[in-house]
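Example 231, ligand 2-phosphoglycolic acid.
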Amino acid sequence: MIVAGNWKMFAGPDPRALAEELAGLGGVETIVCPPYTALAACVAAGLTTYAQNVHWADEGAYTGEISPPLLLALGVHGSLVGHSERRHHFGETDEGVARRASAALAAGLGVIACVGETQEERDEGATETVLRIQVDAIRDACGANERLVVAYEPVWAIGTGRTATPETAQEAHALIKTLLDRPVLYGGSVKPENAAELLEQPDVDGALVGGASLDVDSFASICEAAARIRS
Ligand code: PGA
């Protein structure tokens, strides 16, 4: 079980307080994805720390980007790539996401690669097609790399309070695993109240938590639910 907290563009909790709360939790791998300015403090607190994005080049004239070697120099362990907010607000493409993922893995970082359909795509019955296109791009670039994890995040469930039902999540996860044999985390309004029923699904290997990861107690309680289920 893996539980990752995506703090997005929020300051997030105090890294030392969070590390203390999570210490001694067995059976679950916990990851934090803070804003760039808090990466060093999270590393120093002993948390497994991922950036929220990473570029494919080692260095270069790419204002606003960060490279795998720069993250590694800070002691960062990995990065998210392809979050729907990157895809939709900043125009990231399947090709770019795949390049980011493959460069990060090649550099020795872990990667959580995010995929998921919009409400419109689901309504049109295009969920499977969309997931196939997104996952194929990542698989073709990275293969079933042992440091690669996928996150299924239906866009309609992110930050909306509308969680996918456990059955909807399970169905999508099972499909993704036929395409790429790696662990798949569920993301989209995961909270202490709904974590267990999602994590109990056989193909749900953990959670990527946004809003509920900003509070030490609620993130810790999701991590504890994960630890109880498959420890
Ligand atoms: P949420 O965000 O838990 O606030 O819905 C999840 C994510 O975007 O990773």
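Summary: DSSP finds ten helices and eight strands in the chain.
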